[in-house]
Input
Amino acid sequence: MNIIPPNLPLFAGILQEDLPSLLYCVRATVETYKKRQTIISQGETVSNFGILLSGQARSLKLDADGRQVIVTLIRPGGVVGIILAAVTGERSLVEVVAEEDSRLLSIPFARIGAVCDCGGACRGREQLAANYTSLLARKALELHERIDCLLEPSVRSKVLTYLRRLAMEEGEGASKIALPFDREGMAEYLNVDRSALSRELSRMKREGLIDYRKNIFLLKAQC
Amino acid sequence: MNIIPPNLPLFAGILQEDLPSLLYCVRATVETYKKRQTIISQGETVSNFGILLSGQARSLKLDADGRQVIVTLIRPGGVVGIILAAVTGERSLVEVVAEEDSRLLSIPFARIGAVCDCGGACRGREQLAANYTSLLARKALELHERIDCLLEPSVRSKVLTYLRRLAMEEGEGASKIALPFDREGMAEYLNVDRSALSRELSRMKREGLIDYRKNIFLLKAQC
DNA sequence: TTAATTTGGTTGCCAGGGCAACGGACATTC
DNA sequence: GAATGTCCGTTGCCCTGGCAACCAAATTAA
Output
């Protein structure tokens, strides 16, 4: 069990030495998934949430006409099922699939709020609950930020809204931005056609609004 | 303080008689807002969350070119700032404005997780924390569901995705759906033009896919 | 009652962007 | 080296849907 990387936000403020008994007490397990294996299926109810320890996954939605839409990209440290586990009885709208061989730390949500039954051997129960809430809030914020982009009417305004937010996060006034996506990922996130995105990006570069090479973007002053 | 309506999810599982001391202990206050008054401004950091007791509010985004986009509609029992209060230091992306004279139960997020300092007079602290997490998760789920609609490529598929979800919630196999929106609200939620929505709805009615009068919709079998 | 306002359906216009197809730049493998 | 794959920019075609303008019905005010 000591394959838990340090600095996971879920364990922030918890002493490294307290982790083993805490993990044991909350019934944490490590699950492994092979490439293309399903972690959560659409329609399933979910009682565990997970932290991706290694590998990569994505959540995708199969809509009624069979189109496959990417909803989220999950990297190590990222979180799986944190929303669903916290609302009892809801069925998953998305399918979560491992994109590479992956390891997932899985914890029953019910054990997060539960009173400790191991006679006080584990410390950090409250901290863990607080961290869970914090992770959940962060996740909600991410969803909110994406909606912010999706609500924009044009490809251009979608891109600008997105870049401005990244610039904001990267530090005040910063304008050099390293995207977490390649072009295709960026297009999927903004829900636009990849070629339409390329077209608009070139246009914006030509007009001097932005500059970019690969996934490094530069946001010019007036944005 | 005894103007708290019963059945607020935030207080589920907490005895009515325990409420007063609990509310006192978490420093809950009731704030009143006049029509068009701002509850949270864009860019503000937020440390309190709120439950709307009466009135109505909406959160809206002023994008860079001044366009005003409605993000959420908040009705009594609904929740304000629950995400932001739980992530320290983030600035609000949206403006929350009262649409009518409103009353808001406001609670500092910091008091939710905090240890009680009133000598045990208040019961239900853990329950309150659990309820907060549950509300937050539900909010996140709502955001997720909206993204689900927004990701759909056409007006028609947006509408169907939305209606199918409502039908699902309304009970298994149910196909008679009472929308919480008028046409304009529906268009804003799905982020489409109102007239384009009307156009597509008529088309779908003509094709026998759906039927509707006012805000009552009927989803035919094959959907 | 009539006037005024809100709500929602209709229609013509036209541009933004989805789609498909292609090609060039790099990287990887044999 | 050739061969294969991936990533990304470009372009033409054409349809969806945004926009504006208008109207009918319903609702509210006067």
Observations:
- Chain A has seven helices and eleven strands.
